[in-house]
Amino acid sequence: MRPGPRGPGGKSTLLGALAADLRPAAGVVRIHGRPAADWPTAELALRRAVLPQSADLAFPFRVEEVVRMGRAPWAGVGRDEDDAAVAGAMAVTEVAGFADRPFSALSGGERARAAPARVLAQRAPLLLLDEPTAALDLRHQELVLRICRERARAGDAVVVVLHDLGLAAAYAHRVAILCAGRVAAAGPPGEVFTADLLGEVYRQPVEVFPHPGTGAVLITPRRGS
How far is 8 from 179, CA to CA, in rounded Å? Predict the structure, then answer.
């Protein structure tokens, strides 16, 4: 999802409503078929994990401790299972190398890698991620979205807010473009990402064409000579 420039897009608000952190002005958000507002907080935490845009902490928790916070909803399941979930999440996000460092001492990119590890350690079947690639380098952008795609293929539901249309086209099964608080279009990337629609929403001419090898949608701004 991505907001257009004509007023607030509402992407974070939408994600907050999907997470049941915000009450929608109209309609009903359902999680596993049940109205989100009807879920007790403890039970909801077992079913959905949320990654907010910012990940600031006031106390000097070590990275491993931050990742282990994702296991809080599972209190009582057993230390071995918690340890395995934390170790697995840190390994797949490549943060095990600075597990003992204070989270507050990490660079922006390192924090952006550690924060998804906490979400993965939670092992919820619904993942809601708000701009998880914003502070990451190219390698770790691809890494995070590969993890998201693998989770989706395994049967989880994954909703990701992205600014990068190219990444959305490469990894998403379905996309929604938000403009001024409304959905301008939704569907498979190949159907939604058209030059006319994107040019109108972003007020910037773009070119859309298939990748010569994979056929995936490629998007680039149209620039003058």
Answer: 7
